[in-house]
Design a protein that fits this description.
Number of strands of chain B: 5
Radius of gyration of chain A: 27 Å
CATH architecture of the largest domain in chain B: Orthogonal Bundle
Strand content of chain B: 5-15%
Strand content of chain A: 15-25%
Helix content of chain B: 25-40%
Protein name (chain B): 2Fe-2S iron-sulfur cluster binding domain-containing protein
CATH class of the largest domain in chain A: Alpha Beta
Strand order of the largest sheet of chain A: 3-5-1-12-9-10-11-23
Shape of chain B: globular
Number of domains of chain B: 2
CATH topology of the largest domain in chain A: Aldehyde Oxidoreductase, domain 3
CATH superfamily of the largest domain in chain A: Aldehyde oxidase/xanthine dehydrogenase, a/b hammerhead
Largest interface: A-B, 57 and 51 residues
CATH superfamily of the largest domain in chain B: [2Fe-2S]-binding domain
Number of helices of chain B: 5
CATH class of the largest domain in chain B: Mainly Alpha
Structural class of chain A: alpha+beta
Distance between the termini of chain B: 48 Å
Oligomer: heterodimer
Bound molecules: FE2/S2 (inorganic) cluster
Keywords (chain B): 2Fe-2S, Iron, Iron-sulfur, Metal-binding
Number of domains of chain A: 4
InterPro entries (chain B): 2Fe-2S-bd, 2Fe-2S-bd_dom_sf, 2Fe-2S_ferredoxin-like_sf, 2Fe-2S_ferredoxin-type, Beta-grasp_dom_sf, Diverse_Oxidoreductases
Helix content of chain A: 25-40%
Radius of gyration of chain B: 16 Å
Organism (chain B): Acetobacterium fimetarium
Number of helices of chain A: 19
Pfam families (chain B): Fer2 (PF00111), Fer2_2 (PF01799)
Number of strands of chain A: 30
Amino acid sequence: MRAVNQAVRKKDAMLLVTGQPVYTQDLAPKDCLIVKILRSPYAHALIKEINTEPATKLPGIECVLTYKDVPDQRFTLAGQTFPEPSPYDRLILDQRVRFVGDAVAIVAGENEQTVDKALKRIKVKYEVLEPLLDFRTARDHKVLIHPEANWKSLCDVGADNTRNLCASNEEKNGDVDEVLGSCEWVIEQTYHTKANQQTTMETFRSYTYRDQAGKLTCVTSTQIPFHVKRILSNALALPESEIRVVKPRIGGGFGAKQTAVTEMYPALVTQKTGKPALLVYSRRESLIASAPRHENEITVRIGADKNGIIRAIDMVTLSNTGAYGEHGPTTVGLSGHKSIPLYGKVEAFRFKYDVVYTNVMSSGAYRGYGATQGTFALESAVNELAEKMKLDPVRIREINMVKEGAVMPAYYGETLNSCALDRCMAKAKEMIGWQEKYPGIELNNGKVRSIGVAMAMQGSSIANVDTAAVFIKVNDQGHYDMKIGATDMGTGCDTILAQIAADCLNCSVEQISVSGVDTDVSPYDSGSYASSTTYLTGTAVVNTCETLVEMIRKKGADQMGCPIEDVEFDGDRVHRVSGNESITLRALANVQDQDADLSATESYCSPVSPPPFAVGMAEVEIDTETGAIDLIDYVAVLDCGTPINKSLVRVQAEGGIAQGIGMALYEDIVYSREGRNLSNSLMQYKIPTRLDVGRIRVDFASSYEPTGPFGAKSIGEVVINTPSPAIANAVYNGVHVHVRELPITAEKIYNGMKQHKNKSN
Amino acid sequence: MIIKLWINDQEITKEIDGDAILLDFLRDHDCYSVKRGCVTSNCGLCTVIIDDKPVLSCSTLVARADKKHIYTLEGLQEEAREFGECLADQGAEQCGFCSPGLVMTVLAMVKELKNPSDNEINEYLSGNLCRCSGYMGQLRGIKDYLQKKGGAGK
Ligand code: FES
Ligand code: FES
């Protein structure tokens, strides 16, 4: 009756496909106050005067709140374990506004029309300040984004608000300059990745009310209910014991909801008025005032010997965190930590970075979390090195890739326990037909068809930080109630964790009932992010089941009057090994004695973060007249350890790759010269439709991770990392144009081809 | 103005504002399956069926639906389950937020297209965005469903 490694249907599947009301907005009381935000038209300004009276006077308006109504203590919206590496740099509402769209006032009223009217009646006088919009000039710029005295950084991440620095650091191993100096081949290039929107189909939304116990309760579309509790406590200056956070089904996360974007606004309204309040971000707000991927500019130097052995990597990342520092200090780290270790023969590396404040929308967490940016840069540079050396880009990877058992100095010194990167590469090659198709061919319709490659890694949870607890109890029917604090955001973790429990307890997945998250009743979990749920919470499930099985055996043995060594539990009954006697779990659950309660709780925090691996290969068609590019085929082979749920792991992969394709080819947040975000609708911010993704083919080459549950590692993030560099490589192999700035548009390819022609003329 | 229409075969006569939007009207009448994902008619989350055709309720005035029969997922539970099971077997309903719009459009498609090819399916559904699934699992689920219904995809 094994459930692990099967394609088990998601527990919530039928609820979702039949359209049941299970999301935040569906559950909000009908008489909720409607909350909306007045936003700054300027990228940088001070509020000189704000007159709310004409708005407050409107019938149906409950309250209008400004910076004068909020606690003057700074906090971060980043969902991270305390003490957060992200600086405490914001207030719910501030007198200084720092990007076009920054919150100026909160209005709550009985319906949308009235609230919209009230928003127009608030009179604000601004002192417009010079905005700082170019992140390349931000460090030590005379314009300071956070000059305030109560700005603070809790961790030693090199932050300094008097220099516009959200983080800064340098790490190295060996002497990179010396090794580069002795290399036959050296390449140096700079790459630019843009801010990208996670674009969850359900925009940010939360509602709040006071529950029967008087607790300020926040029902919210979040990945991080326990962190939201602390964030609200910081923001509202309210003890955590008076706050409760509930996560219903949520309409997509991808990291977006690892930042508490909306919760504090209705919470403040409920705190002030005692009434239930609902805030639903419009798509426009979700695109101009949220938490997209950090824009990065990354300069890479690589050196190789005459045989193509990569001996040194030097990486310098400049990351744009925008107006606030959410996830700034940590995302940047991954640009190096989760790209450099792919190359196992490196003798020396250096990784240096700055994260800077500017007057654009603040950034946050997006699937891949910095590794995506670093992978585009490093994998593109490796491809350029291969070109220079006239080596096949697959070949250069085959001879340099990291192998199982390696110690990885650039990856916190961890030892690689499981790695099937070599098998991923071999399988991908075969699937796409690399041998026959590389580098490409000219078709006779003015197009070329070509292929490209990249590889990637990620982690599985944040080592020594992320923590997951699980509680399982036998109920009197002999079924199990499992409580987890990890948040299923559509990925299916409720089901995946039940599969793990089912195999540990020798029962069916249906016998495990899983509840959504309520901070009042669920055990603590740092949240569903950093590719942690299957690996980390999954291990906590295994541990909890082990403890529970011991208790069941003990109780069974006691009932039968024999030593515990003499009994086994087969999932249904506890029976004696030395005789025929047995007792059912159901009967045991109904025995009333001192230790009547059969329940266990265990938690887990991993000392390591085993990387999953990916190889991606893209086949594209390019019009040599116009530069127009079509993605024809995308092949990915993945090593996520043991896939716990075969269909869910596949769809995770396909979905992540489609997002990666969006990043590679279409998605771009464009600002006007004044700092206005022009990509404020799905018309301008183009995510791929089903006509844009070509064919995505996924396969697995599984290793077995000894520290993971049933050998599993993570899958959620690694999948987004290969499309950008693989497609860029395919473009080069087709038309000899290097696109080093995303997205890879027809215009950039066309301009590149034109430069070629001009040069050769 | 006063309108009369049917939501999932239930007659409703009501005084409405001339600029009332169908999506809001439907949610106000407890059709919570109808979702909003944009304001630019790009996402398809709000799809309902009127006269056998998929219609974006976010960009339809209630006034335009006067005298019409409107169907949402609440009124097509059996069909939703039948197709939904095919999606679920692929794990293609991830967050599920796009599912109601997708299911509605697919139910309209099977009435309109006979033996559609992959391309025809993708064209027909191109207005239904999904950020989670990467679309491949949805296509597999749709083809299974067509096969089960006897109109196998090519
Ligand atoms: S809500 Fe997006 S198309 Fe209707
Ligand atoms: S399943 Fe989440 S948007 Fe489609």
